[in-house]
């Protein structure tokens, strides 16, 4: 949550405050039928996830849940943006706990072997930020995925 209410009240001179704007983005993502609109909104939300000042708003609006849901469906670019959003905000301890308790590692591992390099990079970054010695099974799972990834693309590593 924001440390002060001052952050919550910040407004631009011409637009809504940050919470209202993020709420509008979430509504647009959920209501839009256009994949292009969904991608644009998800990309915007992933960018907002980079700024710690937004963590309280993202938590209030359950945006991390939206990121997890987008890791599994839609075109590859949607998964890339969703995992990028996870990587951007998973350093925040409440989000890290949320992600680990809600199966995000499975989503990350399932997207590691994609031929789309952006998804692979975002997945690796999220894995590094989420790695926690309190969840030792993920290290074993990660080793298996890296081995599979290597075997799939071994000619590119030589």
UniProtKB/TrEMBL annotation:
What protein am I looking at?
Answer: Uncharacterized protein
Which branch of life, at top level? Answer: Eukaryota
- State the organism named in the record: Artemia franciscana
Q: Show the InterPro entries listed in the entry.
A: ARM-type_fold (IPR016024), ARMC7 (IPR042462)
């Amino acid at each position: 949550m924001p440390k002060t209410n001052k952050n919550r009240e910040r407004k631009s001179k011409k637009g809504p405050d940050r919470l209202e704007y993020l709420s509008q983005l979430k509504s647009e993502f959920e209501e839009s039928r256009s994949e292009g609109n969904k991608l644009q909104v998800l990309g915007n939300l992933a960018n907002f996830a980079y700024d710690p000042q937004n963590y309280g708003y993202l938590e209030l609006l359950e945006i991390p849940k939206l990121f997890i849901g987008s890791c599994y469906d839609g075109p590859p670019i949607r998964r890339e943006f969703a995992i990028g959003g996870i990587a951007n905000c998973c350093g925040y301890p409440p989000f890290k706990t949320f992600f680990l308790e809600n199966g995000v590692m499975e989503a990350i591992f399932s997207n590691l072997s994609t031929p789309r390099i952006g998804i692979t990079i975002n997945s690796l970054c999220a894995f590094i930020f989420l790695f926690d010695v309190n969840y030792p099974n993920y290290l074993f799972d990660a080793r298996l995925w890296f081995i599979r990834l290597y075997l799939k693309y071994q000619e590119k590593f030589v």
